[in-house]
Amino acid sequence: MEKNIADKSWDSAIKWIGKAQHMIEKNLVRECNGVVRHPEQRDTRTTRKIDPSSTTLYNRCHIKQIFSSILCLLLLFGCSSREQTTKSSERIIFFGDSITELGIKPNGYVSLVHDSLKTIGYHYDVIGAGVSGNKINDLLDRVEKDVIAKKPSIVVVYIGINDVWHFAFASRGLTGTPKNKFEEGLKNLILQIQSNGAKVILCTPSVIGEKNDGSNPNDILLDEYSAISRKIAAETGSTLCDLRKEFLSYLHHYNLSNAEQGILTYDGVHLNDTGNHFVAEQIVKTLDGLGLFFPQR
Q1: Is residue 181 domain-shared with residue 260, that is, in the same domain?
Q2: What is the pLDDT of residues 22-78, one digit of tens each?
């Protein structure tokens, strides 16, 4: 059967990505003792030698991540003309706390994902269902009204920050969520959503402070809660979006001054413009992993 216009457009995009990958390998991965500089660094003192066998940002192992980013740029900025293929009833709900509540603003990550999907012809009904201060028990309390009743196709769950962070605010009458309760509640939440026919994308909690040396007060606890999220994603067959891992990797390479905030967040927790674009990129990658953009033929 002859390919339709949308398929031809994607085939052209794939060929372009292949050429771009070749250019990356040719220009960024130099021969032994080649010299490169981080893209956001202009100071010549940051120039460094590259050992081809090392695990620096520009070695061959990391080329796959750069290649994947090219795909996301195509999706995020509209380098495609794919025809509309989804039904108007299909819906994605972003379920979480204040990060998601803010995500519905014009440059928020929820809005960016919506705009990206629309650009490539996927006219999903995208809903942000974030509420400031929410923890896992709060999501359980409102999952029926804010998620299940709206019959979504996909639910993106981004929770865990306040479950950790609120331990520090006992004097204000707040409390965190014990690890066993967090695990139990998270599993219960996902099973409820899945039992109503929706796919779940589970995000690990990102950061509470952006220092890249492990010295943020909540780093250890946040790592433990992220491990719980990874475990529950595996046990429930949910799709994992490991924001904690991706944030730490980004901060390792770009937070050169070991700043507490201002890289991906404006206060150590809530996303700035760069952070919103970064999270949107991770979500788009995860949606692509579900076969949303390149279904099996």
Answers
A1: yes
A2: 554 444 444 333 433 343 444 433 434 434 344 444 444 454 455 555 555 555 554
71 and 98 belong to one structural domain: no
Distance CA 86, CA 180 (A): 39
CATH of residue 250's domain is: 3.40.50.1110
Does a structural domain hold residue 294? no
Instruction: Tell me, letter by letter, the H, E, C secondary structure of the chain.
Output: CCCCHHHHHHHHHHHHHHHHHHHHHHHCCCCCCEEECCCCCCCHHHCEEECCCCCCCCCHHHHHHHHHHHHHHHHHCCCCCCCCCCCCCCEEEEEECHHHHHCCCCCCHHHHHHHHHHHCCCCCEEEEEECCCCCHHHHHHHHHHHCHHHCCCEEEEECCHHHHHHHHHHHHCCCCCCHHHHHHHHHHHHHHHHHCCCEEEEECCCCCCCCCCCCCCCHHHHHHHHHHHHHHHHHHCCEEECHHHHHHHHHHHHCCCCCCCCCCECCCCCECHHHHHHHHHHHHHHHHHCCCCCCCC
8 Å CB contact between 255 and 247:
no
- Give domain status of residue 81, yes or no: no
Q: Is residue 82 part of a domain?
A: no
Domain-ending residue, one of 50, 76, 102: 76
Amino acid at 93: I
Cα separation, 100 vs 110, whole angstroms: 7
Same-domain check for residues 114 and 11: no
- Residues 74/137, Cβ–Cβ less than 8 Å: no
Cα 175-181-183 angle, rounded to 5 deg? 125
Is the residue at 164 inside a domain? yes
Range of the domain at 151: 91-289
pTM of the model as a whole: 0.74
Tens of pLDDT, residues 81-129: 444 444 445 899 999 999 999 999 999 999 999 999 999 888 899 999 9
